Predict the 3D structure of the following.
Amino acid sequence: MMPNLSEIKDDMTKNGLDDLIIKLDHIAYRVKKGERVKAMAELANAVPYYEFKSFKVISMNAITSCIKLDKTSPVVVVSEGLDEDSIVEKYVKKHGGRIHHLAYLVKDIEKVVEIQKKRGITFTTDEIIGSEEEGIKQIFTMPTQTANHIIEYIQRFGDFDGFFTPSNIGVLMKSTEKLGEA
Ligand SMILES: [Fe+2]
């Protein structure tokens, strides 16, 4: 059985996680192929978001757009698959369009993962993805049992402000013309 919230909080504090996990960095949606722009418009209609970046994620065979409310608020990332074989489209076929993960900025990802593994948290990969040279390190937990979404831990280096390792993305312009070429 899960311990209660105050027991968990005490345990997190005791393990030093209060100081290592800084803030919500981004929220990532996965939506049906062809519905990324509609999803962004829906969100932007409710909250004054602006689009600031779009790129192709090669490993997922998907296009990802990022919208922001302001400089400091968590970014909202919306991905759609480029074809039926895309991991994003397969996910959406199974679960519907929805939030895929919540990403939290951390200070020392190795330390966080080491502590969390000891505490029984399981991850989708054995190793942390990315490197300091690439500007980003990240890892994903297994989905939560209650809401079936993933928690990502992310650490950035230098002025890198992306969401995936650079080797993993193709930069896109925002215009549909360029999007067609991707
Ligand atoms: Fe992410």
